[in-house]
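Subject: for your reference before the review

Hello V.,

The reviewers asked for a structural picture of the protein, and I figured it would be easier to keep everything in one thread rather than splitting it across files. Below is the amino acid sequence we used in the manuscript, unchanged from the supplementary table.
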Amino acid sequence: MTQLHLAMQHYFLSLAEIVIPPEEFEYHGVVLKTPPVKVSVLSSRLEQRIGKFISDVYINTNIGDFYIEICVTHKCEQEKIDFYKNSKINSIELTFEYSDDIDIIEWLERIKENKIPYEWFYYNEKEKVISHYEQELIKENNERRTKRTKSAEVAIRKLLKEKTIFLPSIKHEFTYTESNEHFSEIVSLYNKKNRPLDKIELIQQNLESFVLKGEIIRNDDKYVIWIIYSLSDNKLNLSDYPQGSIIIRSYPNHQNKPEWQWLRHPSLEKEKSRLYSIFINSCKEKIHTKSQTIFISNQLKHLSYNYLDANKEFYNQDYRKWCQWLIKNNIFRPTDTQKWPKIPAILKERIEYPFLWMFQRWSILVMSTIIEIVDQVSTGKGISMYYLFDRLLKTFPPHERFIELEGIAEYKTVQAPHR
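And here is what came back from the structure prediction:
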């Protein structure tokens, strides 16, 4: 037995009061907790025998007996723990993780401040907390059932009077996978609607639900629909309703607002098959569109690179035309010192213009033409890309590959470009 173990034992002997720490635990998915309680110590002893075991500390308080195990070098043995639990004896283990850096005085300060890790083996207050929780659940369930019953009674009176039932929508999720592409879509097989009934009667009423039987009569055919107003969260036995459709008004996930849903409905396989065919065609079209998009993207990159590679050829082809354009627009006049114009600095800010590939002309000539078109528009008046592009096409007819790729993008062969 270590000095720390002895010191902690004698610490409890000196107490006139002690705070019983809380126990936090999970019960049916809910975290519950006993409250901390300050109690008076009536008596205390060390090395108290209990059954065939010996407890480190025994404390008798004004609310009952408690047995304390002090862990310094090893945990309490499992047999002893089982004895405490099976005998329902209030028992707790305090864990002191021994360290040469922490002296006994500091350990005493920690225990006074309730900073020592602990584990309850058994605590009778836990059962009281569970009992209180169960009583609160019963109270909440009763209040919930009363509220649901009143709501259902109002709705049923209206249903019996008007003989019109609300039929909820029926939805289904389609999925499809092809070429590592995954698709899913929720579709409506049946749209919600109000439907008149030829007959309606209340068949059954209990603490769980109201059950009504509705009938729709067409010529010699009788269509039965069971209408259930659920008051609880319990599942229904569908075998109690062997024929006809079933709709239920329930409260999913304990929510306050009721929802209608089908538990059994007429076959919708034809509609399901029709919508599934539309869904599959849509998926295949999307796959094709993506494939074509990748194809077009690769083609555009290739054409853009080729255009940049041919820049010198276009320069040789169009430089003189550009000079003529400058002279025509009174932007340049040849002199003895400068017979040929230089490219303006503003047009040098961008070294390459790959997006002009469809014109197959020197980029400086095309950009100069764009500037001329824009300059012709009145100040303050808007100008669209389509208008600008149309004007360019009148001067520079597009490359045939542009028209072909545009046609692919629009799923048709077109002659009028970019529309």
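For the response letter, the relevant points are probably these. DSSP finds ten helices and 17 strands in the chain. Residues 269-309 form the longest helix (41 residues).

Happy to draft the paragraph if you're swamped.

O.
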